[in-house]
Amino acid sequence: MKNLVLALVVLITITACKNESELKKTNAIAVTYPETKTVDTVDTYFGEQVKDPYRWLEDDRSEETGAWVKAQNEVTADYLSQIPYREELKERLEEIWNYEKVGAPFIEGEYTYYYKNDGLQNQSVIYRKKTGEDNEEVFLDPNTFSKDGTISLGGLNFSKNGKLAAYQISEGGSDWRKVIIMDVESKEQIEDTIVDVKFSGISWKNNDGFYYSSYDKPTGSELSAKTDQHKLFYHKLGTSQRQDQLIYGGTEAEKHRYVSGSVTEDGNYLFIYPRNSTSGTKVLMQNLSQPNSKMVTILDNSDSDTRIIENVGSKLYLITNRNAPNQKVVTVDASNPSPENWKDLIPETENVLRVSTGSGYLFASYMVDAVSKVKQYDYDGKLVREIELPGVGSAGGFGGKKEDEVIYYSFSNYITPSTIYTLDPKTGASEVYIKPGINFNADDYTSEQVFYTSKDGTKVPMIISYKKGIELNGKNPTILYSYGGFNISLTPSFSIANAVWMEQGGIYAVPNIRGGGEYGKKWHDAGTKLEKQNVFDDFIAAAEYLIDNNYTSSDYLAIRGGSNGGLLVGATMTQRPDLVKVAIPAVGVLDMLRYHTFTSGAGWAYDYGTSEDNKEMFDYLKGYSPIHNVKEGVEYPATMITTGDHDDRVVPAHSFKFAAELQSKQTGTNPTLIRIETDAGHGAGTPVSKTIEQYADIFGFALYNMGFKVLPNTTKSKVKG
C-alpha cells in the first residue's frame, strides 16, 4: 500500500485589513491509495510496443474491477468527508436549487403539455391541461420509475393525432433504452415494451407506428463491447418487436455506426441519415404517401451535414453545410432532390446558422462570437424581422407546429437564469411567459467577453463571469471550463451550481476554443485529427490570459471539462502540470490509442483519427493521450477524476486507467482521487440529488486544494500569501 500525506498550506488573515499580517498554517489529510496491480499486456503499433499495465480494469464485469472501484470510492469518500465546508456547500446548493422550474408548453392532440420540477425532485414531471382549460394533472412522473431516481426519462414523442405516446427510459444512466407505448387518455401501457434501443429518437408515421434505431446486442459486456452497425426499424402498432421491419442498416453495404430516421410533420416523407462518424452524413428519402415507393438517395457521401427542416407539399427545405461551412437553407422538389437542383433560400453568412420552424415561419439563429442573433423568414425566404432578444446571451426554442399561433423561446446567459418568453410571430412582440423564482440576484454579477491570442496567433473569445466588486489580485478561485470538439458550441447559459461558485467569490471562465462549432466547420476542423493540439493550446492560452490579467493565478486555478472536455483537461494537466492547482476531468476520453475499441467510440474518428490509421496518426495520438503521458517524478495538480460505472458512451475504463497511472507516478503532496458514481452513466438523466452531491464534492475539493480553510464568502480572510 502506498501512503501519502497531503500537506495543504493555508494562509489565514487575522482581520479583513489588507495591511495586517498573514499566517501560514498546515492542513493534512492522510491518504492510502488502494493497491492497483499491473499486468504485462503489450500492444504493437507500426512496430512500436506500447505497454498497457492496467488493461484488466477494462473488464467492467469482473469482481476484481468491482473491488477496485469500491476501494477507490472509499478512499475518495474518506478524503471528501474531511473537507470542513462540504456540507455547507451542499446545503447552499440545495437551497438555491429549490425553486420551481417549468418548461415551454407544447400542444399534442387535445392537451397542452409541459415539464415541471417543484424544486428538488430528482426528475422533472410532465403535466398537462386540456387546451384552453386550467385544470392541470400529472401525465407522466419519472420519479415513480425508481426510488433513487436512477431510472430516467430519455424522450417523449406523440402520434400525429396526439392519442398515443411513446417514451424512452434509461436505467442507471445507460445509453441503452426501453420504449413504452401508452394511451394518453387512460395513461395505460398498451403494448409490450420495446427493448434494446440505443442512440435513437422516436419518429411517428402518422398514428400507425414509429421508426427507431438500435444495434444488435453485443457479445460480452453491453456497457463496453463495440457496437458499429446501427439499424433503423419500423414498429407497427399491434405487432410484436420481433416483427418490426428493418428499414436500413441490415447489409454490409448499408453498414454505418449511426442511422437515424425522421418523418416530416405531414407524414408524407421519411428521411434517413446514415453516418460513420459524428460529422458528415448521407441522406436518403422515401415517399410514404406512395405505397411501396423506393428509397431515393439525395446525398451518397458523408462530405457534409444536411437534414430536412420542413416541407410544403413536395417542396423540401434543407439546412446544409455542403459548399457552405457556416450552413445555409436550400429548397428542392422531392421529385428530383439531388444537389444540382438545390436553390438557396437563406444564403450562408459569416456567422454560423441554425434553423427551426413554427407557425409557418423559419427562424434563423446565428452565433455571433457565440452570442445569439435571431431572424424570422417566411417560406419564400423573405426576411420578416430580426427578433428583439432580452439581452446578450443564448436564445433557444423558436420551434413548433405549422398551426401553432404562439412560439416559445428561452433566453439565458452565465448570470441570467433561463426565462421563457412567448413570441407573436405576426407582430414580433415578445412577453415573459415564465420567469424563475430563484434566490439569485443577477444584478450583483457581471459577464464580460474578451479575446485572447493562442499559441499560433489565433484570436479566441472567452466569457468571464464573476461577482461585481471582486478585486483582480490574482487570488480569486477560478474554474476554467471548455469542450473543444465535435462541432459543439458553448454558448452562454445559466447554471445553478456555477451561481453558488460565483457567490463564493469564484470566477467562471469559458473560452470558445477550436474544435467547437462557434465559427463553423473551419473552426471545428482546426481542432481535429492532426490539428487537435490547437484545442489544448487554446485552453492553455486561456489559462495564461486569466493569470496574466490578475483574474487568478496558478495556485487558485481549476480546470474542468467532461467527455471530450475530460480529454481536454487530461491533456492540459499532463502537458502543463505547473499551470493549474486543480484538475477535474469528468467522464473523459483518456486512452486515445484504444477509445475506438469500446461501444460506439469508432464514430469519433472524424475528430480524433485512430491509432490504426497510419504511423503518423498513431504517433500524434500517443503524443497527447493522457494515459500515455503521465510521467514519473512530476507533480501533477490536485486531481479528482469523475465517472459513472454505467457510462457506456465513454466507458469508465478510461478514467480507471488514468487514475491508476497518476496514483502510481504522482510526485509531491497533491491528491489524486477518482469519484465513481454508481448506477450512473455519461450524465444525462442524473438525479438532482446526485448532481448536488457531485457539485458539493467538486467545489469543496477545488477550494480546499486552493488553500481555503473555510468558504471564501464567510471567512475573515480568503487567501494564502
UniProtKB/TrEMBL annotation:
Residues 492-707 form the Peptidase S9 prolyl oligopeptidase catalytic domain. InterPro entries: AB_hydrolase_fold (IPR029058), Pept_S9_AS (IPR002471), Pept_S9A_N (IPR023302), Peptidase_S9_cat (IPR001375), Peptidase_S9A (IPR002470), Prolyl_oligopep/macrocyclase (IPR051167). It comes from the Bacteria. One of its GO terms (molecular function) is serine-type endopeptidase activity. One of its GO terms (cellular component) is cytosol. Signal peptide: none annotated. It is found in: Periplasm. Keywords: Hydrolase, Periplasm, Protease, Serine protease, Signal. GO terms for biological process: proteolysis. Its EC number is 3.4.21.26. It catalyses: Hydrolysis of Pro-|-Xaa >> Ala-|-Xaa in oligopeptides. It is an enzyme of class 3 (hydrolase). Residues 34-433 form the Peptidase S9A N-terminal domain. Belongs to the peptidase S9A family. Cleaves peptide bonds on the C-terminal side of prolyl residues within peptides that are up to approximately 30 amino acids long. Has an absolute requirement for an X-Pro bond in the trans configuration immediately preceding the Pro-Y scissible bond. This is prolyl oligopeptidase.
